[in-house]
């Protein structure tokens, strides 16, 4: 038997007898790690909807006038190092990149669409 997901709920009582609920979820068995990532999400169009400090040389404007991450002719984000497939502006990456979780449903869909997973 393989466990694919573990849900953990912790209940604690504060001194004022109010209940504090903390939940965590851990996905196991997906096989997607930093070492196996392949950065296929870095081919998606990324709108810049908050200021995280993305350097100007990585910013483009789409057909509707919105700021987006610059993508090169090959379709990859300009901030991705092609040798390591790691973000060269990780500390200043856009909010959308911060929210796109590795091994999430959306990640798995992108991996399948890019032929990485079956």
From TrEMBL:
What InterPro entries has UniProt attached to this entry?
Puta_zinc/iron-chelating_dom
* Superkingdom, taxonomy of origin: Bacteria
Note the Pfam families from the entry.
CxxCxxCC
**What organism does this protein naturally occur in?**
Aliivibrio finisterrensis
This chain's protein is named: YkgJ family cysteine cluster protein
């Amino acid at each position: 038997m393989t466990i694919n997901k573990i849900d953990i709920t912790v209940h604690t009582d504060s001194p004022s007898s109010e209940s504090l609920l903390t939940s965590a979820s851990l996905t196991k068995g997906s096989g997607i790690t930093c070492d196996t990532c392949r950065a296929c999400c870095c081919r998606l169009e990324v709108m810049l909807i908050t200021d995280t400090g993305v350097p100007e040389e990585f910013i483009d404007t789409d057909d509707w006038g919105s700021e987006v991450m610059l993508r090169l002719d090959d379709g990859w984000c300009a901030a991705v190092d092609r040798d390591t497939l790691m973000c060269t502006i990780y500390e200043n990456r856009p909010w959308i990149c911060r929210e796109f979780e590795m091994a999430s449903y959306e990640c798995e869909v992108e991996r399948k669409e890019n032929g990485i997973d079956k």
